[in-house]
Every structure is written in structure tokens, then in C-alpha cells.
Amino acid sequence: MSLEQALAEAYASAPRDRVIFDTLELRHPNFLDDYGHPTAIRVVIGYEDIRARLEAYAPLHAGEEVDFQAGAFRFRLPGFEEARVPSLQITLDGVSELVVTHVEAAAHSPVPIGVTYRPYLSTDLSRPQMDPPITMSLTQVSVSALTVTGTATLADVHNYPFPAEKYIRSRFPGLFR
């Protein structure tokens, strides 16, 4: 069962008085607030802002309650097929000038933009309903006047050597004659 099928099943069987808030967080070293402190762009699909607590090991503001701005974004959750790097397609619509400025500043940096997807339940904003949340790197970013589009991917795990340790003479002298 894919993640999308599992979510569709959960949505269909969920009580009507509970709503799932899909949230995105974008992070980059160039995202700074007015005081020069690191900040993140946090968005929730909907018409009202929410205040929710991040997980204890979040990359930025761990364990704190943070605000997610109401907005419109589309995404397709990553599939986990064999021999393919999982990717998350993201489109943020109606973004503010501040978001466009942040994303354009990050686009000229060699450091990728970090993206975290967290679903929250309307009756429990004390923690994300997915543990751990999906965290990826945003690549192939395109920015227009009111839209930011990009593809978020995991690290290219298919090209990691296995075993990752190199067996060299100085560390393993017994392997050489």
C-alpha cells in the first residue's frame, strides 16, 4: 500500500469533526528575520493560520509552538518505488513578496532549501501526526510573480557505496599482504 493510498483510507474513515492540516516548512541559511535570526517559511493549506508544536528534533525551533500561515499550495506525496529517488512536487500559489525574496536568495546558493511536510490533526496541534515527518531538499526551483514551484528529493541513496566504509591499508593492515 502506498502512502497516498494509506492517507486516502485514513481520510475516508476519519470522523467528520476532525480536519487534517497539511503543512510545509521551507528552511535555508539565507532565510533571516528582521533581526538577522534564522527563520522558516511555514504554510498550512486553509483559510486560517494555525499555531502548532514542532517535533522535539525539528531542524529549526525544535519543540516550540510556531505559526503556520494560511495559504494555497499543492503537493504530491513521494512514491517509494524501487530504483527511483523519492520526490515531492510542490507548488506554492499566491505567495507574498517576502517568500519570493527568500526563495530567490536561496536559489543562488549552493546549499539546497530544506522542506518538511507535517500533517496535523485539528483536535491535536501538540505534535505532527507523522513521526518522523517527511524532510527533503528542494531542487529545480522556479519563481514567478505569485508562484513558487519545485521538486523536493531525498538524498540520492541509490548511489551511496555499500558498505560505506573504505577498507584502506592504514586502518585494516590485516587485509593486505
Description of the structure:
The chain has 177 residues and is mainly β. It has one domain. It is 12% helix and 40% strand. It has two helices and eight strands. It has helices spanning 3-13, 97-107; strands at 20-32, 38-45, 50-53, 65-76, 87-93, 113-121, 134-143, 147-153. The chain has a seven-stranded mixed β-barrel with strand order 1-2-4-5-8-7-6. The longest helix has 11 residues, at 3-13. It is globular. The chain starts with a helix and ends in a 24-residue tail after the last strand. The mean pLDDT is 80.
Q: What profile does the largest beta sheet have?
A: 7 strands, mixed, barrel
Mass-distribution shape = globular
- Low-pLDDT runs of 5+ residues are none
Query: In terms of structural class, how would the helical and strand content be classed?
Result: mainly beta
Question: Using DSSP, what is the number of strands?
Answer: 8
Mean pLDDT: 80
List the helices and strands in order.
HEEEEEHEEE
The helix fraction, in percent, is 10-25%
Instruction: Record the strand order, biggest sheet.
Output: 1-2-4-5-8-7-6
Please give the count of helices: 2
Strand content: 35-45%
The separation of the N and C termini measures 51 Å
As a whole number of angstroms, the C-alpha radius of gyration is 19 Å
Number of domains: 1
